[in-house]
Amino acid sequence: MLQSLYEFIQISGFLQITWQMAVMWIIALFLLYLAIYRNFEPLLLVPIAFGALLANLPTQGLVNEPAGEVFAPVAGIVERVDFVPNAQVEEGAAVLTIRQEDGTRTQVVTEARGTVTDVYFQVGDRVEKDAPLARLYGTEAGGLFYYLYKGIDWEIFPPLIFLGVGALTDFGPLIANPRMLLLGAAAQLGVIVTFLGASMMQFTSGESASIAIIGGADGPTAIFTSAKLAPELLPAIAVSAYSYMALVPLIQPPIMRLLTTKEQRKIRMKSLRPVGKEEKLIFALVVTLFCILMVPSAAALIGMLMFGNFLRECGVTARLVQAAQNELINVVTIFLGASVGITMTGERFLQSETLGILALGIVAFAISTAGGILMAHLMNLFSATKINPLIGSAGVSAVPMAARVSQIEGQRYDPSNFLLMHAMGPNVAGVIGTALIAGYFITTLQ
Q1: Residue 107: what pLDDT?
Q2: Which of 304, 333, 324 is nearest to 432 (CA)?
Q3: Using an 8 Å Cβ cutoff, are 63 and 342 in contact?
Q4: What three-state secondary structure class fits 187?
Q5: How confident is the model at residue 13, as a pLDDT?
Q6: Beta strand 88-89 with 114-119: parallel, antiparallel or unpaired?
Q7: Residues of the chain with pLDDT > 90: what percent?
Q8: Cβ proximity of 183 and 425 under 8 Å
Q9: Which residue from 361, 374, 438 is spatially nearest to 186, judged by alpha carbons?
Q10: Quick check: helix, strand or coil at residue 78?
Q11: Which residues pair with 330 in a beta bridge?
């Protein structure tokens, strides 16, 4: 009996539990608590948190790669080769050692198991980053999340999310009050400040740009940018961006209260004029043409955003709009959230670099929130028609979360004050602004 119990424990996952896993269980449970009991964006937090829980369990066949080519993670000289053709290699085995120019040695570890069929380099050869080193043959397919994560890796999920967002969003408030573009632009202040700060912390320009986009509170855009400019930081950036998007109701209100008075929070704004169908269609077309001509690298995001909105406003594609608003965006949100969560392994997440990115991200987000509010104060100095500065915080790209926070905060001080539609103006302006900045970074830094 005891022998059977011992054998069971040996083949189970209990002996593989590490302290990092245990810490991440606590973090995952905390995120689930916020989603379920505090209702902090459960559509985002539940998939992310459950994916994080799965990532920190000793699973098999969930994230493993299929056998194939092994690529060099860095450039340098091959100093040691630990395998030969026809050798059997297990997942996680060190197969090569590369010495970089600064003397640092990097072990190349396989992410799959199989039989070595080809070795392309010998000791003393120079390899470039991402160059194929060898090929493995195996009969096992990759794990489920290996394939789901390709939606992030290949930049498929972010544009599809933008398609759904466009189909869900009414641009009428922005068209009716175009000066809200200034609030959306001011809310990009955090992106610029964080780019400069990350550069001073010795991150590369591409890494700094990718981290800075977190300040726009736009998860899809942050993923899209980092996949092009800093793929090695993509997991940490994706986790940061989506965590702060989900925690908008927790992070923004203290900043909003700090930068406004009770009287300012009670300001009532004039009702917006009705916006006709033709205006909305022309707006979608003009924004598409202008933004893509100005920043071609933003085409995938801006194009899909405006395509979804055009479907919504044209009035003859009801079935397509319904699919984009419901089935498509819901399925992609599930896969995207869980794929972000599956990257939150304890070994990766509990590192100084990842924690540094999290810290920079929240600073960026706080500065962006403050930038929109301060711009509203500045506009009120020169305008007879006052703006409730609470809607300035909605200039970040978290649609419609940030706009809802403006509405909730306004009604705390005047229950009959309705700011939601006014806040949607800077909210959608922020989406466009963050996408344009991301496109500019990609164009100039890639």
Answers
A1: 84
A2: 304
A3: yes
A4: coil
A5: 74
A6: antiparallel
A7: 58
A8: yes
A9: 374
A10: strand
A11: none
Residue 27, token pair as written in the block = 């973090």
Whether 48 contacts 338, CB under 8 Å: yes
Judged against a pLDDT cut of 90, whether residue 373 lies above it is answered with: yes
Q: What angle do CA 150, 153, 155 make, to 5 degrees?
A: 100
Residue 404: CB partners within 8 Å, gap ≥ 6?
249, 420, 423
Range list of β-strands (E), 16-93: 69-71, 76-81, 88-89
346, pLDDT greater than 80: yes
Contacts of 81 (CB under 8 A, 6+ apart): 95, 96, 119, 121, 122, 123
* Overall average pLDDT of the 27-44 stretch: 90
- DSSP string covering 397-428: S-TTHHHHHHHHHHHHH-TT---HHHHHHHHH
Write the DSSP symbol of residue 267: P
Strands (E), 101-178: 105-109, 114-119, 126-127, 132-137
Q: Within the chain, what is the greatest distance between any pair of CA atoms?
A: 84
Task: Enumerate the β-bridge partners of residue 70.
Answer: 134
pLDDT at 100 over 70: yes
pLDDT digits (tens, 9 = 90+) for 178-216: 999 999 999 999 999 999 989 998 899 999 999 999 888
Section 336-347 average pLDDT: 90
Sheet holding 94-99, edge to edge: 105-109, 94-99, 76-81, 126-127
The torsion angles phi and psi of 254, rounded to 5 degrees, stand at -60, -35
Instruction: Pick the more confident residue, 429 or 88.
Output: 429
Give the C-alpha separation, 107 to 94, whole Å: 6
Q: Both tokens of residue 100?
A: 């970089």
Which class for 91: exposed (0-12), middle (13-18), buried (19 or more C-beta within 10 A)? middle
Pick from 423, 398, 143, 409: nearest CA to 245: 398
Q: What are the tokens at 373?
A: 């509010």
Burial 334-370 (b: 16+ CB within 10 A, else e): bbbbbbbbbbbbbebbeeeebeebbebbbbbbbbbbb
Cβ-in-10-Å burial (0-12, 13-18, 19+) of 168 comes to: middle
For strands 94-99 and 132-137, give the pairing: unpaired
